[in-house]
Amino acid sequence: MDLSLESALNLPHTDTEPGLLAGRPLEDWNAAYRKVESYFHALRIRNKLLLGRLVSHVLKRAMHRAPREPQRHATELAAQEMDAVVTEWFAQILEESPTNRDQMLSTRGRLALLLADMPGKWQDQFLRPGPWPEAFVKAMRDAYLRAGPDFQLSKMVPRPLDLGPITTLNNLTRLPFLKMLTVWLLLALLLSALFVLTHYRSAP
Amino acid sequence: MAQPTPAPASTPQVQRAARLFAFFSGAVLLTALVSMIFADLLWRSGWTGTSTVLLSLFIILFFLTAVGCVHAIHGFILRRLGDPQRLTCAADYQTTSIAGVSSAIVFPIYNEEVSRVFEGLRATYLSLEQTGELERFDFFILSDSTNPEKWVEEEQRWCELIRELDALGRIFYHRRASNEGKKSGNIRNFLNAWGRRYRYFIVLDADSIMRGETLVNLVRLMETHPQTGLIQTLPALVNAESLFGRIQQFANRLYAPIFITGLNFWAQGFANYWGHNAIIRTEPFMQYCDLPSLPGRKPFGGHILSHDFVEAALLLKENWQVWFAYDLEGSYEEMPQDIIGNAQRDRRWCQGNLQHALVLFARGLRGLSRIHLVMGIFGYLASPLWAIFLLAFNWALWDRENTGLSTITVRAFTPWLKQLSGTAHAFLLFLLCMMVLFLPKALALVDLALDRKRSAAFGGLRRAIQSALAETLFSALHAPLQMLWHSQFVITILGGIGVNWGSQKRTSDGIGWITALRQHWAHTLTGIVWGAAVWKMDQPTFWWFTPVMTGMLAAVPLSVLTSRASLGAWTRSLGLFLTPEETSPPAELDTLRLRMALLEKTTETAPHTSDTSLAQAVLDPYVNAIHVSLLREKQLNPEFRETLEKMGVGRTEVRELAERLLADGPQALSPREKMLVLSDATVMPWLHRQAWIRPGETLNGWWQTAIRRFAR
């Protein structure tokens, strides 16, 4: 019985050296596994069987690429494949071109997964090739986040408020050295008050 | 142009004038009587310049107290005999159909506790759903949050909420790129984008909750009274846990009904707006209530801070009515949980109210609007006046001691006081002052005693009386602190030191001894110095000053202990400070409490650290998708797009910042730079992809740690 990982993942037997897999140390693939698994965790794939299958699927693609791109780290290859797999699947289910540059497709796809409640209802459909259940496809394609109703734009215009005599007073605050003058005036008033209060007492 | 239709249910002008005259005449008469007695007392011990100062201040301060007392007297009588001139009584509004009427419920928020805001909204939404009128309302969370953490968390909570309630297209979230004009600017922004879709909008605060039935009734009232531009409810203070919060809550629930009934007696259709828990007719508000910037420099010039009073005044100016619907139940709000938090809120309100001095003389305003503005101003100006009054009294004492002359009192000028000794005369004055001060509390208790059902809701009459006594004791200790604080606020504001529009701390964590000492050391020191000075001058007088001094000396322990939730719970177990919402919680408050308890448990297991939300906005595939989708949708609004461009969004500089964020971690970026990156709808999805596909060694260690958190 062939228990090698190459057979399980349907990979060509290229590595004869022990401790290597697709030309990379086992520990590198371990790190790649953790990264891909983290991303699927972030997508709330909680079912361990599904999770394992999805990660294996991504790693398999990365391992196929590995011999052709020896300069790349296993984690980098795996992360790129993960991105490609997910984006291609979004393109299929949302019927959009997979080559959009500004990440519109990826954003739309992730939002659709959330609004269609993929983590709750449709985990088994995620990354699975079509055809998919009609309800799932509809939920994915109809998903749209409305932050507000349609705009009915208008423009409120402030009406001038005639503040009366206060405007003149308030404009005084624009005078230079006003604060200093006010402090001096207050001091003079205080001294005058002290003088009056301490020098004059009228009998009842 | 919106014009109010004729007002069939409004109070005739003559009757209104008579009410106003009767009401304020009562306060003037009371002030005149007691001021005469005070003037006579001053006369007996020899008239000086200080006597003139003391009498002038006494007249102003006593008048303010008398106005409060007369409110309570009128309120008590009307509550006992029935008030036919209240809005809810004027027509059979409850059968009015609101089919075809669309209303918006708006929650303007600013760096608030996110979970509390959204759970409050949930409670209101569920309550409204039960009325069967949900489809007539749309909910808007209008965020002005400047903290990136809060922003991302708000978006996340909003998305969770609409999914849980299946409320997509019913609950909306909008965050402004710039918080220009603060709360009133936020509302204006909403009205400019969507105002024309709604006949009415209901403004709720971040901590407001409203019963569905109350929301529907407000719309019905508006439909029944086409001449009304705004209806303000009386929000009940709820959900307090600390001792301070529970005392305030109890006082609000016990005393507010008689005061507001008295207020409605003279205000009628010329009432006021308190900024939230109110319904507003959209068209006239949009037409008349966009506030201009005031001329001159801060603190008076510039943006109007306390916009609510002015907006009500502008509606009244254009012949729209403003009413208090004070007897509509089911309108709630929360309050600061400690003395310091309360003072922080007062600091902001103080500047706003003092700024009204500019608007006070604006041409065309209604006389009653000016009364509301003056009362708001004196709400804070009274404190420094009290302080000056007490100091002037001490001055007179010092002056007398300094001359070395003994005080020879002469007979009173007023014939019927002639037989009284100087001490008895002073005691009579003291009794009258105490009567005016405490009569409202006594009337509120009598009113409670006469209503058995309401009495039971306060835990029984005996407990309510005990609570009122304890509340009075606390108020006596708290009042000197308020006096010092408000005096400080008035002086600093007039000195041109601006106010920071900070968010309020509204949970009952309690404050520490060090914090309290830092905040209250000056109060304690004032108490020691002042007390020692009075003791040195005249020991018998010192004992009269002990209530004032005790409050100052006990400031630190008072502040710390009353902030404790454990003491709040203890008094509750004793049956003290109970309110109707505590003894029999309404469904909407129960919903909120249960949800908050649940969230508290969840939060304990997932601690929120610095930049957690930023990490989520970049790494979490769903949070990033929500964030980017909202940014893209908002860009459809030309005003929003323009603001973003002004901020620098879309420039290559943002991509460079994003590179720095990946390479050096969030600590390398300033809060403004983080906001810039978060505001860019192109950079954010790019960041998501890069953070996941780049090799670990090219990313800052912070990202690797954040990614590892997902591998749970």
Residue runs with pLDDT of under 50 for 5 or more positions of chain B? 5-9, 501-508
DSSP strand content of chain A: under 5%
* Total domains of chain A: 2
Oligomer: heterodimer
Elements of chain A, N to C (H/E): HEEHHHHHHHH
Number of helices of chain A: 9
Helix content range of chain A: 55-70%
Biggest chain-to-chain interface with counts: A-B, 66 and 82 residues
Strand order of the largest sheet of chain A: 1-2
Strand order of the largest sheet of chain B: 3-2-1-4-8-6-9
| Beta-strand residue fraction of chain B | 5-15%
Overall form of chain A? elongated
Total number of strands of chain A: 2
How many helical elements of chain B?
Answer: 27
Sketch the major β-sheet of chain A.
Answer: 2 strands, antiparallel
Q: For the residues shown, what is the average pLDDT of chain A?
A: 82
Q: Quick recap of the structure?
A:
The complex is a heterodimer of chains A (204) and B (712). Chain A has 204 residues and is mainly alpha-helical.
